[in-house]
Amino acid sequence: MSEEIDFDEILGKYHSDPFEYVDIFAEHTGTVRFLVEVGNDVEAVSGEWKHIPGTALYEITRERNPKKNTATTNGVVSEVYSGLEGRFVEAGEKLLTIRHPLKKKEIIERILQEVLIIFPAPERAKYFFAPDVQSRIEKKGAREVSVKNGDEIIIMSLMKRDTPVYYSGDPGVIHSVYFQPGVSVDQGAPLLGVCPADKLPLIKKIITRVKADWDKSS
Amino acid sequence: MDNLSQLIPAVLNDHVSAVEFPARLQAHGEQKAEAIARYGAFIGSEIRIYPSLGRAMDQARAHIAGCEQNGRSVASGSLILASRLDSSKGRFQRSWHAPLGGLWGCLLLADTFLPTFRNILPLIPGIACCEALRQEGVPDATIRWVNDVLVNRKKQAGFLVEGFVSPIHHEQYHLLGFGLNVNNEAFPVELQEDATSLSTILGESVNLCSFAMSFFAKIRWYIGLLFYEEAQWLERGGHGEYTDNHPILTRWLELSDTIGQRVSFGYDVVQNPQYEALVTGVTNDGGLILEHDDGGVSIEHSGEVRY
User: Fold this and answer.
1) Is the pLDDT of residue A217 over 70?
2) Are residues A110 and A204 located together in one domain of the fold?
3) In a mutagenesis test of the B interface, which of A161, A165, A179, A185 is the best target, namely the one with the most B β-carbons within 10 Å?
4) Could you tell me if A53 lies within 8 Å of chain B, comparing CB atoms?
5) Which of A207, B58, B75, B295 has the fewest CB atoms nearer than 10 Å to its CB?
6) How many beta-carbon pairs below 8 A join chains A and B?
7) B10 three-class SS
8) Can you tell me the mean pLDDT for B123-129?
9) Residue B225 pLDDT more than 70?
10) Can you tell me the mean pLDDT for B54-65?
11) Is the pLDDT of residue B1 over 60?
């Protein structure tokens, strides 16, 4: 991570295009039928327990078993690969794109994720800090807790199977925690953002600068 | 009658050959049944029995570490049993009463499962226990998601799986902890309403070694079936999501009474119940499908239910 960050370039990028483009892929093989068009607004999954599905995006049918796939993020449909309508697609084939408007907090997180060491979820599961890490966080706060390669930091819980997860990456302090205990995290989603201790001032500078700049211009 | 010391690998093998395998043969055919039996044969290949332990899981970890320190390999499928556990606990540090008369221990499994199939592993002890109970004359034995075994709404057995990475070679293990109330009939006050034992249900004590053999023979069968299904899936290409109806999940559905129940759900449902919903099914990887009162649907792969 460089000490020098071109704030103007990063912020300029988000000012000129404050969106995230979320590609939607076929969940499995099957015949696809689109349920949205370019320009449609889509709603994300909602409800206290994330139990109210988002806007239905496409239906995929395999062996006469149709399955509707719904949006997990809000925004506007910016692209639909309509040539695939009614055709058989492979799992993972790109079907459409949602343009998701970014909030200030999301922009800060995205910039931070570019500079922090991101530790992703190995499987879709619920995650908890390992007891030792949890007690250190409770005593001192996460940003005073350092981790290094091989440390048992998190417990992954799936179907009454609790598995220790070991940190792999450069040593640092836990700067950002992206999971909540008891809430499912998708595979590959960030669990932790770790920052080498000597880079913390830089991270603080990023947050302060983005907040000030965004507030000034909005 | 605590005659666990009679349970040695050869006795378990004899039981499998004489009782378990013939019972499976008719349903699966000779070729398939033999393949499944081969895949599961390592279960119980080593059995260590102790008069008492603190926690069987801790003993399993110490055993793995000790083997590595002495330059020996660990026998996957080893069983660690104790006549009683003095500091046993369930999930969330809940106390688990484990006096003489019960079947307490840990099955040690090297993690050679494909990631796609690991979710199925925790279903196996519940199925094995439920089948053993029904065979023993308890037709009402049922499974509460994920793997609690209940008889008349009281818990007869509980299971948990903990991961462990060995200290020297960093090999990953699943430690499958089991606690089955068999001949132990006295429970602490806080458990009296919710716990029961096999002898209490039957009104007489049972042969602990025989019941243990029945349970482990079924564990052996279903672990074999898990590997067999993996092999079949790999032969078909092994790509993407496993979308078949897994035979272990199918069996779980036959034995469980969770589907159709209105349940309280929570990660730790005793301390922190999160919501109530109707269970409408399970996904093909064992996740619970819960329908909320407002029509929304949650799919939970972790947590527990009460009803």
Assistant:
1) no
2) yes
3) A161
4) yes
5) B295
6) 92
7) helix
8) 98
9) yes
10) 96
11) no
Interatomic CA distance for residues B150 and A37, integer angstroms: 50
In what helix (H) or strand (E) does residue B224 lie, and over which residues does it extend? helix B208-235
Supply the pLDDT for residue A131: 87
The reply to whether residue B296 touches residue A53, judged by beta carbons under 8 angstroms, is: yes
Number of folded domains that form chain A:
2
Percent of chain B beyond pLDDT 90?
86
| A50: nearest CA partner in chain B | B298
Q: What DSSP string describes A116-147?
A: SEEEE-SSSEEEEE-HHHHHHHHHH-GGG-EE
CATH of the domain at B111: 3.30.930.10
Task: Classify residue B187: in a domain, yes or no.
Answer: yes
Q: Which residues of A touch B165 (CB under 8 A)?
A: 164, 166
CATH number of domain containing A206: 2.40.50.100
pLDDT of A7 strictly over 80: no
Put simply, the answer to whether B303 touches A52 (Cβ < 8 Å) is: no
| Cα of A123 to nearest chain B Cα, Å | 9
Q: Residue B99: is its pLDDT beyond 90?
A: yes
Give the minimum alpha-carbon distance from A5 to chain B in angstroms, rounded to a whole number.
Answer: 39
Q: Would you give the distance in Å from CA B120 to the centre of its chain?
A: 11
Of B122, B173, B43, residue with least CA distance to B287 = B122
A94 lies in a domain?
A: yes
Nearest to B286 among A50, A53, A159 (CB): A159
**Mean pLDDT, residues A64-89:** 95
- Which positions in chain B touch A166 (Cβ < 8 Å)? 165
Q: Does A70 touch chain B (CB under 8 A)?
A: no
A175-206 residue pLDDT tens: 999 998 878 898 899 999 999 888 888 888 88
Contact B234, B122 (CB under 8 A): no
DSSP classification of residue B202? H
Q: Chain A contact for B165, CB < 8 A?
A: yes
Q: How many domains does chain B have?
A: 2
Residues B107, B203, single domain; the answer is yes
